[in-house]
Write a structure and sequence with these properties.
With about 270 residues, the protein is α+β, with helices and mostly antiparallel strands. The chain contains 7 helices and 6 strands. Strands 2-1-3-4-5-6 form a 6-stranded antiparallel β-sheet. The longest helix has about 35 residues, at about 190-225.
């Protein structure tokens, strides 16, 4: 995939930007607060539809433009994928009125001129990003590692993002139902519907993450071995809160040198 042209309108500090992107390495050079990070943010947003720099999408719309009754931040990318030309456009529409104390924001996504759902488009435009704060993937909480995996897999596995959305919504609904049952009482059998959704979608997520960790370990361990002249061994393992194959009581753990390969696990076994 090759990004050939990027157009920004009322995005961050850009009121308007049109730039052709050449093949090969591109170096962005400029003073502070001139938009270098915002440019990278726009490109990565097209791949993940989430910002690595903003807490919500409203912050992405140009501050001056957002004061207007109707403001639209636009990111448009022309790119080639599989020998074919495509155009991906994201519109962040700032509307009058408030929702939960904030201005309303509506998001539209167009692929080759046709409006599409985010779940249908994510993965069509790919980008890899590394920032200093991404060291939190190693040093931070498990939530950081899950977020990294989810962003990675959403770009590489069709419908992963949609499955993740189904899982999160079902989990939220189940928690709300549990709270209601606790406070008001009711029929606990209502939980069965959400349990089934969580179980099925969760199994798909676990299976995908297991395969991803195995592939990352295969690639990363080779590079790590070269960097350390084979004096160290890098191993990665996925340990979900629900482990379909937990360690049996009294069982000794595997040695660090022993690779853990669970890619043969099928989601039916997880279920």
């Amino acid at each position: 995939m090759h990004l050939t042209h990027l157009s920004l309108t009322d995005f961050r500090n850009f009121s308007r930007l049109d730039v052709d992107v050449p093949l090969g390495a591109t170096l962005l050079l400029g003073d502070n607060a001139q938009g270098k990070t915002s440019l990278l943010e726009a490109i990565y947003y097209l791949a993940t539809f989430t910002s690595f720099h903003a807490s919500n999408d409203r912050q992405l719309v140009n501050f001056i433009a957002s004061k207007q009754p109707l403001a639209v931040g636009r990111i448009v990318a022309d790119y080639r994928r599989g020998g074919k030309a495509h155009r991906l456009e994201v519109r962040l529409i700032h509307e009058e009125g408030e929702f939960n104390g904030n201005a309303r924001l509506r998001k539209e996504v167009l692929l080759d001129g046709s409006k599409r759902k985010i779940g249908e488009v994510i993965g069509h435009f790919n980008a890899v990003l590394f920032l200093p704060q991404m060291l939190q993937v190693v040093e931070g909480s498990p939530a950081e590692r899950r977020r990294y995996l989810d962003l990675l897999l959403s770009q590489t596995i069709p419908h992963y993002a949609e499955t993740l959305s189904i899982f999160n919504k079902a989990l939220s609904q189940r928690n709300a139902l549990l709270k209601m049952l606790s406070e008001r009482g009711g029929d606990p059998s209502q939980l069965a519907f959400w349990d089934e959704k969580i179980t099925f979608s969760g199994a798909i997520l676990i299976e995908a993450r297991i395969h991803a960790i195995h592939e990352i370990e295969t690639l990363a361990s080779l590079t790590h071995s070269e960097l350390t002249r084979s004096s160290e061994i890098l191993r990665l393992a996925y340990h979900p809160a629900y482990d379909p194959f937990p360690q049996k009581p009294g069982q000794f753990a595997l040695l660090l040198e022993a690779p853990i390969n669970r890619t043969g696990i099928d989601k039916s076994e997880i279920l």
